[in-house]
């Protein structure tokens, strides 16, 4: 039973920018080992919810518990890995190697003010191996393709051995052929390393085959359940939730997207 | 030159100060440039000028202030300016870059008022504007030495945090990095270095010693560490070459240092163009 302990609990959460509510009465629990996909149209509050969970925005109403602790008191950020939506929008001319970028994931690990320990190189290589990018160790980050950069940022999040990994629209800018490979990598991390995953995505056509749970958010939480329950959520209901007609496009090998 | 260097204390002061500035200004410059804040150095140098002019004005009218080193006045104004920039950035969240022209024009405005009140342009002020080989005193050298050691220690301890905040500030904050504190320490450090660099490079040219060597290194560096190394190398070449030529040609060292730094940049750009043409077979 202990294995299913809650990692994230969101209670009665409301949030607004100026006068516009972007999140209303959100209740959500993510248990250890879950692979949760949060889907919803643009402006539905998905990224805001992630920012609130990550402590990047201040809670206005409601409560968030991380690893059982209220967010305001939570200090063990090394347990949380994050791959931002903006990760691919970094300054491409920044002259950093893949090694330097991945290593920066350990910035706070042995103390912010202490130099990196000697074991760092080994840890960087291990993290890069997990995303099949070890041969790019000393390449400049700006020279890599969007998909390769995304893997480097995942390695940066993995190097700190997080128990919870949060990814904000990680497949944006990655070609469709690579999307399936990306989800397989996530499944591997989820199953083999036992990492709890929360992913914000538009890949509605593929997620039910890849994740364990789905949450549909459009200011309110319309649906939260396991992926087989989500499959029952028919096209009509999905269209009504998105506010416009939605067609699930399923490609070969269950790759999918949304129109 | 070496004989003169051994003989004259003012030359020793100028060279050691130059070597220290050539080390720390490009190191800070690397972080300034990658954070796209290159103009901050300009804004702070102009507010520092206000501090220098204010110190000279005090010294002119009150004899008890005449012995006060204007570097201190420059440091106070520069650090205050850096704090104002941080404050203005939080006020104009969506127009953060506005803080720079505001502080820059405020600095020039103050300087003009103080210079006018001191009854015009003085020889002293010329040295502060464009640098001087002969004006660096032993006290100046000791101040520069103290600040340089402080900067090196600060960068050593903050390197990991500064790298992460420069590359991906949001990610740094999700890791629980004290980004505001690190940014605050960094900008105060920049302000101090600008204030102490003025004796050698001059207020109007100090920002170029923070940006030109970095502009050269960023074109050819393969890693962040290499960029720091190359920036320091180019900075030192510019300072040493600039001081030697200023001494022999009786010129203001600020000008010669910056012209050499610009020449290095030109060579790097040419090298990159030749390399690109060679690689693409054109």
UniProtKB/TrEMBL annotation, chain A:
<dbReference type="InterPro" id="IPR027417">
    <property type="entry name" value="P-loop_NTPase"/>
</dbReference>
<dbReference type="InterPro" id="IPR017871">
    <property type="entry name" value="ABC_transporter-like_CS"/>
</dbReference>
<dbReference type="GO" id="GO:0005524">
    <property type="term" value="F:ATP binding"/>
</dbReference>
<keyword id="KW-0813">Transport</keyword>
<keyword id="KW-0547">Nucleotide-binding</keyword>
<dbReference type="InterPro" id="IPR003593">
    <property type="entry name" value="AAA+_ATPase"/>
</dbReference>
<keyword id="KW-0067">ATP-binding</keyword>
<dbReference type="InterPro" id="IPR050153">
    <property type="entry name" value="Metal_Ion_Import_ABC"/>
</dbReference>
<dbReference type="GO" id="GO:0016887">
    <property type="term" value="F:ATP hydrolysis activity"/>
</dbReference>
<protein>
    <submittedName>
        <fullName>Metal ABC transporter ATP-binding protein</fullName>
    </submittedName>
</protein>
<feature type="domain" description="ABC transporter">
    <location>
        <begin position="8"/>
        <end position="250"/>
    </location>
</feature>
<comment type="similarity">
    <text>Belongs to the ABC transporter superfamily.</text>
</comment>
<dbReference type="Pfam" id="PF00005">
    <property type="entry name" value="ABC_tran"/>
</dbReference>
<dbReference type="InterPro" id="IPR003439">
    <property type="entry name" value="ABC_transporter-like_ATP-bd"/>
</dbReference>
From TrEMBL, chain B:
<comment type="similarity">
    <text>Belongs to the ABC-3 integral membrane protein family.</text>
</comment>
<dbReference type="GO" id="GO:0055085">
    <property type="term" value="P:transmembrane transport"/>
</dbReference>
<feature type="transmembrane region" description="Helical">
    <location>
        <begin position="255"/>
        <end position="274"/>
    </location>
</feature>
<keyword id="KW-0472">Membrane</keyword>
<feature type="transmembrane region" description="Helical">
    <location>
        <begin position="14"/>
        <end position="34"/>
    </location>
</feature>
<feature type="transmembrane region" description="Helical">
    <location>
        <begin position="227"/>
        <end position="249"/>
    </location>
</feature>
<feature type="transmembrane region" description="Helical">
    <location>
        <begin position="139"/>
        <end position="162"/>
    </location>
</feature>
<dbReference type="InterPro" id="IPR037294">
    <property type="entry name" value="ABC_BtuC-like"/>
</dbReference>
<feature type="transmembrane region" description="Helical">
    <location>
        <begin position="182"/>
        <end position="206"/>
    </location>
</feature>
<feature type="transmembrane region" description="Helical">
    <location>
        <begin position="46"/>
        <end position="65"/>
    </location>
</feature>
<keyword id="KW-0812">Transmembrane</keyword>
<dbReference type="InterPro" id="IPR001626">
    <property type="entry name" value="ABC_TroCD"/>
</dbReference>
<protein>
    <submittedName>
        <fullName>Metal ABC transporter permease</fullName>
    </submittedName>
</protein>
<dbReference type="Pfam" id="PF00950">
    <property type="entry name" value="ABC-3"/>
</dbReference>
<keyword id="KW-0813">Transport</keyword>
<dbReference type="GO" id="GO:0010043">
    <property type="term" value="P:response to zinc ion"/>
</dbReference>
<feature type="transmembrane region" description="Helical">
    <location>
        <begin position="98"/>
        <end position="118"/>
    </location>
</feature>
<keyword id="KW-1133">Transmembrane helix</keyword>
<dbReference type="GO" id="GO:0043190">
    <property type="term" value="C:ATP-binding cassette (ABC) transporter complex"/>
</dbReference>
């Amino acid at each position: 039973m202990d294995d299913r302990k809650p990692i994230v609990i969101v209670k009665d959460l409301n949030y607004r920018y100026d006068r516009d509510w972007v999140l209303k009465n959100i209740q959500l629990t993510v248990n250890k080992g879950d692979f949760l996909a949060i889907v919803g149209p643009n402006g539905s509050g998905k990224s805001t919810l992630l920012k609130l969970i990550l402590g990047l925005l201040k809670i206005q109403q409601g409560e968030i518990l991380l690893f059982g602790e209220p967010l305001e008191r939570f200090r063990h950020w090394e347990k949380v890995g994050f791959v931002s939506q903006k990760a691919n929008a970094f300054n491409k001319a920044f002259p950093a190697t893949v090694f330097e970028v991945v290593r920066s994931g350990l910035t706070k690990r042995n103390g912010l003010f202490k130099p990196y320990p000697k074991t760092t190189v080994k840890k960087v290589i291990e993290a890069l191996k997990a995303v099949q990018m070890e041969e790019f160790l000393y390449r400049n980050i700006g020279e890599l393709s969007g998909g390769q950069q995304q893997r480097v940022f995942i390695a940066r999040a993995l190097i700190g051995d997080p128990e919870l990994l949060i990814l904000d629209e990680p497949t944006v800018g990655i070609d469709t052929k690579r999307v399936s490979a990306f989800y397989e990598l996530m499944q591997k991390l989820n199953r083999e390393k036992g990492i709890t995953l929360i992913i914000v995505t538009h890949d509605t056509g593929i997620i039910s085959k890849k994740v364990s749970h789905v949450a549909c958010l459009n200011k309110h939480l319309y649906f939260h359940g396991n992926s087989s329950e989500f499959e029952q959520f028919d096209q009509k209901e999905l269209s009504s939730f998105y506010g416009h007609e939605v067609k699930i496009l399923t490609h070969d090998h269950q790759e999918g997207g949304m129109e | 030159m070496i004989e003169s260097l051994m003989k004259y204390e003012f030359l020793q002061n100028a060279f050691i100060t130059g070597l220290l500035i050539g080390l720390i200004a490009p190191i800070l410059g690397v972080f300034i440039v990658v954070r796209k804040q290159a103009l901050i150095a300009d804004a702070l140098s102009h507010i520092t000028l206000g501090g220098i002019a204010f110190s000279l004005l005090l010294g002119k009218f009150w004899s008890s202030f005449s012995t006060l080193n204007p570097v201190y006045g420059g440091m106070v104004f520069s650090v205050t300016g850096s704090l104002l920039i941080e404050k203005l950035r939080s006020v104009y969240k969506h127009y953060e870059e506005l803080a720079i022209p505001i502080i820059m024009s405020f600095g020039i405005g103050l300087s003009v008022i103080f210079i006018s009140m001191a009854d015009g342009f003085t020889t002293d002020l010329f040295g502060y504007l464009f640098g001087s080989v002969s004006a660096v005193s032993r006290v100046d050298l000791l101040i520069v030495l103290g600040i340089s050691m402080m900067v090196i220690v600060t960068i050593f301890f903050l390197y990991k945090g500064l790298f992460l905040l420069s590359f991906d500030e949001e990610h740094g904050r999700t890791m629980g990095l004290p980004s505001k504190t690190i940014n605050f320490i960094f900008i105060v450090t920049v302000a101090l270095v600008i204030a102490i660099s003025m004796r050698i490079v001059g207020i109007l040219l100090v920002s170029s010693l923070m940006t030109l060597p970095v502009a050269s290194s960023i074109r050819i560096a393969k890693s962040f560490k290499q960029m720091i190394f190359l920036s320091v190398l180019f900075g030192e070449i510019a300072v040493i070459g600039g001081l030697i030529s200023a001494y022999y040609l009786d010129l203001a060292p600020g000008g010669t240092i910056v012209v050499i730094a610009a020449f290095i940049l030109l060579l790097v750009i040419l090298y990159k163009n030749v390399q690109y043409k060679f690689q693409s077979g054109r």
